Amino acid sequence: MAEKFIIHPCGPLKGEIGIGGAKNAVLPVLAGSLLTGQPCVISNVPNLSDVEYMCELVESLGGFTAWNRNQGTISIDTSRLTKCEAAYELVGKLRASFLITGPLLARLGRARVPLPGGCAIGSRPVDLHLKGLAAMGAEIEYAHGYVEATAQKLQGAKIYLDFPSVGATENIMMAAALAQGQTIIENAAVEPEIVDLANFINTAGGDVRGAGTDTIKINGVKDMKGTHHSVIPDRIEAGTFMVAAALTRGDVMLTNVMADHVKPVTAKLKEVNVNVNETPHGIHVKADNCELIAADIKTLPYPGFPTDMQAQFMSLMAKAKGTSVVTETVFENRFMQVGELKRMGAIIKIESRSAIIEGVDKLTGTQVCASDLRAGAALVLAALVAEDTTEISGITHIDRGYHLLDERLNELGACIGRAIEA
Description:
The chain is of the alpha+beta class. It has helices at about 25-30, 50-60, 90, 100-110, 125-135, 165-175, 190-205, 235-245, 265-270, 310-315, 340-345, 375-385, 395-400, 405-410; strands at about 5-10, 15-20, 40-45, 65-70, 75, 110-115, 140-145, 145-150, 160, 180-185, 210, 215-220, 230, 250-255, 275-280, 280-285, 295-300, 325, 345-350, 355-360, 365-370, 390-395, 415-420. The longest helix has 13 residues, at about 235-245.
């Protein structure tokens, strides 16, 4: 049954919070496990519905997964794959499901995958994925909502991406791991999740060099082995808690966080007049004696300001003094939180791919709906500082990317409950 959040206004968030493993890192690593026919163990796995969907997808292909949620580990064995076709009902739940295409093609010579689902934040086409696979010798066909790729043996190739797509970089990199010869990806994505996937491939016997730069070289190997890999911390979860601390004028220490990965968020919070300090223990966000001031942001591929933090930052700017401009350059439909924030009293005007925000003294609780993962997080943050009670429906989107966000915020002093939607 569908649930909703009931959020009462709270005071400043205070305390310590540990950041979990990165959703956007563990999903490609789970897909990458299809490359090896030996058991793998993935640790620091976040307890998210998206991870569950990916495990179901692997099992539907004939793989085995055992998820110890208490320990945050997944044991995975894909030695006996029986299928190279993904079920539509599983792929429709998860955008990252398309990442199985490259590994299946490389290992089995065929992959038949429905066009993917996920949050409705833009088209996010897979043409760059397929362009790269075709350059490596794959034959691509479209039929009845499916993409089918076949190749007797993928061949190394030089591939230039028109846009530094994270998903395309990951899919091509995994396919190239078992291809014959060397593959070079130019204008590759440089996100930390790319580096994490490359580290997984390398510990499993692959040969990936240059991950984290815009040119990645992959020397194909004959086969890969089992390995143990620990997923990096989630920089978007960390950023969300950092903004929550700033918005509530709180004092929060974040542990298990990589400071380099959240530099764009740290820089903008400092610009907004929030104290953010890196310590040996983690990242300390202290905003109890500051006045939030307006700042502009423009989303860009990493290392620019992340599009996955745009909505949360907009909630912060709704309460900052002055006028802010938020420009979204990555996805064309990522202002879906705006209408709901305006229902709470925010003053926001959309002009093409920019949002102009006039800071207000107060937001007011009301009934709102989360349209996607990050928009839902933005509404939760706004509700923390709104007057009166806020009810947020559609929280299945939030549970896709944040493990028990309500309970973890409550540990810091928030007042959030769950209820069954009528």
